[in-house]
């Protein structure tokens, strides 16, 4: 998209620092996520990807800096205002756990029970629609133990979409999946972004996924304690002069 038509920012992170017990995970992190894009957060294990997500959705308070989500300073919100904003964000966590003793349909209904006054028939209808969107219409009555890992990830996305959030966060959606299932999940994310206009923030370190789905990305680095790259992942692969970024995108072993 040309610069003049750039979509508005739905997330603005400015000079964010995360520290635990005085230990800095990252600092000086600044970026925008634009409406309708698939934004990828990447970097090696332990660099702070999940920690960054937890800040953006208000689970952690910034040590420094500010975070704006859908025009509101999430770290400053409390009570009903905070709940209202959180309803507009869907999250699929890295652990991704579905409730084991509930069917997939019941799992998708959980956020509807928690956050809406919809009657049971309406909840069931919404659950059926969401499971349909991720290709699980036929599995609505199955238990999590009765489905494959890829189906469980898709069910997790359906649950995260229950309240029609304009922003969906996915923490390593394709971890532990075979390459074909993983590619199917990538296609689903791209399709949902295109067809529903949903903004995706996806944490992954799977290079193929990043190149397949990412409109833009940032790369965090544990040693640098912050961002070492930002932009179109394909351009970073072809043009970055940073040795860590090059090593990651070109699968080179660093000297
Ligand atoms: N609540 C917490 N208390 C203390 N330290 C924490 C907390 N949350 C995260 N950390 C630390 O922050 C660092 C980054 O962790 P994080 O889980 O964000 O990494 P990650 O990039 O998501 O890694 P992975 O790719 O393995 O999921 C780690 O050193 C972790 O121990
Ligand atoms: Mg993580």
Note down, in words, how this protein is organized.
The structure is a single chain. With 255 residues, this protein is an alpha/beta fold. It folds into 2 domains: 1-88 and 165-255, 3-Layer(aba) Sandwich (Rossmann fold); 93-164, no CATH class. Strands 6-7-8-3-9-10 form a 6-stranded mixed sheet, sandwiched between helices. Strands 2-1-4-5 form a 4-stranded antiparallel sheet, covered by helices on one side. It has helices at residues 49-56, 79-86, 104-115, 120-133, 149-160, 179-196, 207-213, 233-239, 243-250, and strands at residues 9-20, 23-34, 38-42, 64-69, 72-73, 89-92, 167-171, 199-203, 216-221, 226-231. The radius of gyration is 18 Å and the shape is globular. Helix content is 37%, strand content 25%. Helix 3 (104-115) packs across helix 4 (120-133) and helix 4 (120-133) packs across helix 5. The two termini are 37 Å apart. Magnesium ion binds next to helix 1.
Oligomer: single chain
Query: How big a fraction of the residues is strand?
Result: 15-25%
How does the major sheet shape up? 6 strands, mixed
Strand order of the largest sheet: 6-7-8-3-9-10
Protein name: Polyamine ABC transporter ATP-binding protein
GO molecular function: ATP binding
Pfam family, one: ABC_tran
Domain ABC transporter: 11-249
